Amino acid sequence: MRKKKDEKIIKYPKQYHISIGFVTIGVMFIYMVFHLLTYITEANITVYEVSQGSISSNLEYNALAIRQEQIINADSNGDILYLAENYTKVGSKSQVYALDLSGEILSSLKSSSQSIDVSLDEDDYLKLQNNISTYSFDYSNIAFNKLYSFKNELESQVQQLYTVSAMEAMNDSVQSAIASGTFNIYSSPQPGLIVYSIDGLEDLTIDSFISDSFDMSKYAVTNLKSQESIVAGQPVYKLITSDHWNLICEVDKDLYDSLQGESYIKIKFLEDENETWTSLSFSEKAGKYYLILSLDDSMDRYAESRYVHIKLINNNISGLKIPNSSIVEKSFYTIPKSYEMRGSNDDETGFLRKTEDSSEYVSPTIYYEADDYYYVDNEVLSRGDTLCKPNSNETYVVGSDMGKLKGVYNVNKGYAVFKQIEILYQNNDYSIIKTGTNYGISMYDHIVLQGNEVEENSIIN
Questions:
Q1: Residue where a domain stops, chosen among 238, 271, 288
Q2: What is the pLDDT of residues 116-137, one digit of tens each?
Q3: Where does the sequence pass through the membrane (predicted)?
Q4: By mean pLDDT, which of 103-107, 232-236, 330-334 is the weakest?
Q5: Residue 295 belongs to what domain range?
Q6: pTM of the model
Q7: SS3 402
Q8: 8-state DSSP, 295
């Protein structure tokens, strides 16, 4: 039997083939994960394009009204009858009120109210109709603050019209009482506007007002027309003797500064939506800022109000508009301008820095120029460097004086560069800054939105 031939089996090592496709996908995956983690962990910097804009602010104020007011006091005791209507203009011989010293005329008026035929003429009815129409026009289902004052004023007006008509009907009795000295009629001492209320602020002027004058919580008005009898020396009425009057508004410093140089401003009376122009002046007292508005019209329409609700129409302040989040504050060395030295290029500002052996010319970046100083950073100059004054032996040590500037980071070149700004006006979200400044920004510049999250010369993607 033939033996089987031995069979030899040779095993080859298993070969592994590297796939270029898998390697490429792996590298891309690692790259994506790296950038994803970088994006998550790094601060996301947003770029904002500077544009022309305006800020509409809520410039509404309860302005303090200051007028030329004179309180007229009674010269004797008696029961009082008001003859002139409230908030009407009178002449120097116009009858305003009467005092019944014996009480006979007033008693006769009351007792004869049914027997005397008192008729109102067309003008009387027109006055009542105008009063009612004015209230109806301003009526609100939400605000009832004028309801009772309207009711009292209307009742007083009707009573006054009745009294005048009744006195005319009782002319003989009135003339007899006047002849006997028991009934005296008083005229206005000078032309003016009659007001039958006082509030204790009649003597205020644009020089004497204080911050407490604006405290409406302490404000109180005395209605003089509610008194039936009076004693000598007691106020009878108030006379406003001039159409010229002032409104004073307490404002913040930003608005106060932004209006400097303005002579006039337009305002709106929010009570009736009327608008008018006023001359404008300024006052600063005890660290507070005030606008003084001077008017020669509309006084009689608001004579009843010590605090007049107004709005400044100059509420669209235009310029370069930037978010407040972009604004940062940075410290700089301030170098006196007297140490300036011009280089070979006349437009280049530099300084002569002292070295161990002699001196060298350096030209740092100028970030701002004041009247007497240049503002520079520490990129070229360092604290303690000594600067030599041209044509003099005087020296100046860098860092002796410091200054702070407000600005933004400009990223037009791909990295953050500080640019100084001058704020004209600011609200909670945006600022309006001055255009055309030498070291500032211009329209369409790109700035960092999150100014506090970057540093000078940071690369911004």
A1: 238
A2: 555 556 666 666 666 666 656 5
A3: 20-40
A4: 103-107
A5: 56-64+245-314
A6: 0.59
A7: strand
A8: E
